[in-house]
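About this split. The held-out portion is used to measure sequence recovery: a designer receives only the structure tokens and must propose an amino acid at every position. Recovery is the fraction of positions where the proposal matches the reference. Here is one held-out target exactly as it appears in the evaluation file.
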């Protein structure tokens, strides 16, 4: 009996060993299968549109991912070559060079973007105006040699600002400015629209999860493979690049910020930023430091962040209640105002000098 029991035990141990080995092989095989089937992160940094470009996309196919990233940069550079007023020979430069002389035929996309931008000018009552270009150039905040124009020069420049002087011929697909000296600047919508363009590029190549950063404009597609949302920091307008007033969770949307800290210069102890007010032909004097917009449409978000910044705190807070977008407005008294749709996705930073509010009055608590 004892011998039989020992034999049975040996047989059982052998069977357990075999079963264990089979299970181990199965688990290992499944793990390898899942590893090679799971999307992997591909990251790339570059420079275009006068800013840094960061791409993070998830894909199962290395060659597809590399091709998409490369095509995205090529697309951005081509886009810049068409839309930048600083690029000689761009479609915008041709329109500006022929102001008061003749209409210029442009590509379908450029025409569409200018048409939409004119619509934004109308929505703002002219406070946002894409014919601000002569003023932008005169101040040169974006250049190596910024300056403060004389009041007489500013008075002359103000006469050139009028989006109603843009003549659009949809049938001929031409654009013309009525008066010599006028010029178009699409800088306040171009980066947001670039987010729209690259989103379509990503999706057409099967990319369902991605994060794109074009300066102060961010675009997110889907969720991370682990099912978590992307968490984006909202920059502290009076801190360093790494300081944030809080974070937002984003999925399938764009995020655009306009602020007085992005580009500026100082002269005789006075601070001049790059966001120009058409009424004064000078940097906007506003009690806001920054405005962030969260919207599926990148160009619209770009426009709104500039428009609300120009409005100033009180008018911006009233406008926030009318808009179907997320808004985060930061004033110079270190108050952070959140639209209702932002509250569930926003997490305030700890131990900051800021006070957080759900517009218009309710204080946000952690």
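Reference sequence for scoring:
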């Amino acid at each position: 009996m004892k011998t039989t029991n020992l034999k049975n035990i040996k047989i059982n141990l052998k069977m357990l060993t075999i079963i264990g080995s089979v299970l181990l092989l199965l688990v290992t095989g499944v793990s390898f299968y899942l590893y090679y089937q799971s999307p992997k992160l591909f990251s790339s940094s570059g420079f275009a549109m006068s800013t840094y470009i960061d791409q993070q996309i998830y894909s199962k196919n290395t060659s597809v991912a590399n091709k998409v990233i490369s095509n995205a940069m090529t697309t951005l550079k081509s886009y810049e070559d068409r839309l930048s007023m600083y690029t000689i020979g761009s479609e915008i430069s041709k329109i500006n060079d022929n102001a008061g002389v003749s209409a210029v035929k442009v590509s379908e996309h450029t025409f569409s973007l200018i048409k939409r931008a004119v619509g934004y000018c109308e929505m703002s009552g002219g406070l946002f105006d894409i014919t601000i270009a002569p003023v932008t150039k005169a101040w040169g905040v974006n250049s190596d040699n910024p300056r403060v124009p004389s009041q007489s020069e500013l008075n002359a420049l103000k006469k050139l600002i009028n989006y109603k002087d843009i003549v659009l011929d949809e049938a001929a697909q031409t654009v013309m400015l009525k008066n010599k000296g006028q010029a178009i600047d699409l800088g306040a919508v171009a980066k947001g629209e670039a987010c729209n363009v690259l989103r379509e590029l990503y999706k057409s190549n099967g990319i369902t999860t991605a994060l794109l950063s074009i300066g102060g404009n961010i675009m997110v597609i889907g969720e991370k493979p682990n099912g978590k949302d992307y968490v984006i920091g909202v920059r502290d307008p009076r801190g360093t690049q790494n300081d944030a007033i809080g974070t937002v969770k984003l999925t399938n949307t764009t995020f655009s910020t306009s602020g007085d800290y992005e580009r500026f210069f100082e002269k005789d102890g006075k601070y001049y930023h790059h966001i120009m007010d058409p009424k004064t032909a000078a940097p906007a004097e506003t009690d806001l430091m920054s405005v962030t917009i969260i919207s599926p449409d990148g160009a619209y978000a770009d426009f709104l962040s500039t428009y609300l910044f120009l409005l100033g705190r009180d008018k911006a807070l009233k406008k926030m209640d009318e808009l179907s977008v997320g808004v985060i407005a930061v004033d110079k008294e270190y108050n952070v105002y959140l639209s209702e749709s932002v509250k569930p996705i926003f997490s305030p930073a700890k131990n900051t000098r800021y006070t957080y509010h759900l517009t218009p009055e309710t204080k946000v608590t952690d």
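Annotator remark: The chain has a mean pLDDT of 91.
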